Amino acid sequence: MRLSRYFLPTLKENPSEAQIVSHRLMLRAGMIKQQAAGIYSWLPLGHRVLKNIEQIVREEQDRTGAIEVLMPTVQAADLWRESGRYDGYGQEMLRFTDRHERDMLYGPTNEEVITDIFRNSAKSYRDVPLNLYHIQWKFRDEVRPRFGIMRGREFLMKDAYSFDIDAESAKRSYNKMFMAYLRTFERMGLKAIPMKADTGPIGGDLSHEFIILADTGESEVFCDKRWLEMDLKGRNVSYDEDLEPMFQELTSIYAATDEMHDPATCPVPADQLETRRGIEVGHIFYFGDNYSKPLGATVALPGGEQVAVHGGSYGIGVSRLVGGIIEASHDDAGIIWPESVAPFPVGLINLRTGDAACDAACADLEAKLTAAGKEPLYDDRDERAGGKFADMDLIGLPWQLIVGPRGLKNGVVELKNRASGEREELSVESALAKLVG
Fold it and tell me: 102 burial class (0-12, 13-18, 19+ CB within 10 angstroms)?
């Protein structure tokens, strides 16, 4: 993609309305534009990051055996009245009446809808276990939307819902999602710590939030320092095996949100306890038959007895993760994207647009990188080098490949790693091998 033809409305100054780093950098990098309080348009660069995160989430859900569906954004109020949640949910739920005077709502979550789908389709114990998920825009009418997409009103979310025959099998589904979440965030370059959490309006008696540590986090969190040293990359997770021992091992290492932390009973010595601020990026719940009983979601056992299924729900804030990654990975110059979610893997910078040798070398590099599946963002604008460098640092692509007339005369190009800042001069072939390899 050539920058001269791309839509990338970057800003040189910090927007006055942006209070935290991610909001400031997303506006400056031309990723989003506010349409109303807590509601944003996603511009091309931001949309590419959003889609990359969404795909990682989808791949890790699919690995567990979860099946993707797509449910409506607008839901009937009668279904929520049937579950008993309609009156108690609060003003965060956007309610409205259609032209036929039927009460409707813009869904903040989908427990009722998915349970209705299940109860009308599943009849036997053979139909479970089942885990259905979707990735969908939702709306919660926050009283004070702020911090850009971190606490917006409209947001993209992955929510999954499991159905099982009893508590024991439901716990197996919970454990799968627990480990899948750790894998998901790890692939995005994040250390997300599972913390015992309150179940809130979802209900149930087992819940974990997945928190990334950041100075601008919304709440205080507490964890054993061993979490900061832990590397989960080497763990082999098989979803066909019993994951309870792994779950018990990890949850035995203390971590809790401020709502669940009690200094009087905390088992971790003060010098081993890390007190930080954190950002929630995922939340999982086991809620038993809280929804299946009032909604009549039952299956028949081999003997014919009808039993209410046990359920769980599992959410990941896909759009929120964009801000969370920036909060965890940035410097004074701008964003530093992990390679797995970056909008482009490489920024190709032509220092002398219009110079025949530079133009030819960049066109060749652009073609070869694209053919190798590493499409670059090629800055072919007739701008000063300083402005090009500043924009590339701001948008945070993992690599910058810099082509100038002096280097070409010596048979080299410059390769910069955005995260480390390290630069090296390489032959064109060596630079390509490093980027593609």
Answer: exposed
Distance CA 74, CA 109 (A): 11
Rounded average pLDDT over 129-149: 92
Range scoring the smallest mean pLDDT among 93-107, 144-158, 197-211, 319-333: 197-211
What is residue 407's three-state secondary structure?
A: helix
Tokens of 125: 């114990």
Residue 374's nearest CA partner among 382, 365, 362, 383 is 365
Q: Are 353 and 359 in contact (CB under 8 A)?
A: yes
Question: What are the start-end ranges of the E strands in 88-227?
Answer: 94-97, 103-106, 130-139, 154-164, 192-196, 206-213, 219-224
Neighbours of 129 (CB within 10 A): 16
SS3 91: coil
CA distance 405 to 413: 9
Confidence bin at 151 (pLDDT 50/70/90)? confident
What Cα–Cα distance (Å) separates residue 60 from each residue in 177, 182, 187, 250? 9, 10, 10, 19
CA 225 to CA 434: how far, in whole Å?
A: 36
Using CB atoms within 10 Å of the CB of residue 20, give its burial: 0 to 12 exposed, 13 to 18 middle, 19+ buried.
buried
Residue-wise pLDDT tens digits, 152-208: 999 999 999 999 999 999 999 999 999 999 999 999 999 899 998 765 555 556 899
Q: What is the dihedral of CA 425, 429, 430, 432, to 10 degrees?
A: 100
pLDDT band at 272 (very low <50, low <70, confident <90, very high): very high
The token duo for 296 is 């009549």
State residue 355's pLDDT score: 96
Number of Cβ atoms within 10 Å of the Cβ of 375: 15
Render pLDDT for 416-429 as a digit per residue (tens, 0 to 9).
Answer: 999 999 999 999 99
DSSP assignment of 280-302 equals EEEEEEEEETTTHHHHT-EEE-T
298-307 contacts at long range (C-beta below 8 A, 24 or more positions apart): 298/119, 299/122, 299/123, 299/124, 299/125, 299/127, 299/128, 299/165, 300/123, 300/124, 300/125, 301/125, 301/165, 302/125, 307/165, 307/166
Q: Is the peptide bond before 267 cis (omega within 30 degrees of 0)?
A: no
Which phi and psi (to 5°) does residue 401 adopt? -110, 115
Is beta strand 399-403 parallel, antiparallel or unpaired with respect to 346-350?
A: parallel
Q: How far apart are CA 389 and CA 379, in angstroms?
A: 10
Q: What is the DSSP letter of 31?
A: -
Q: Which of 36-50, 140-154, 266-280 has the lowest mean pLDDT?
A: 140-154
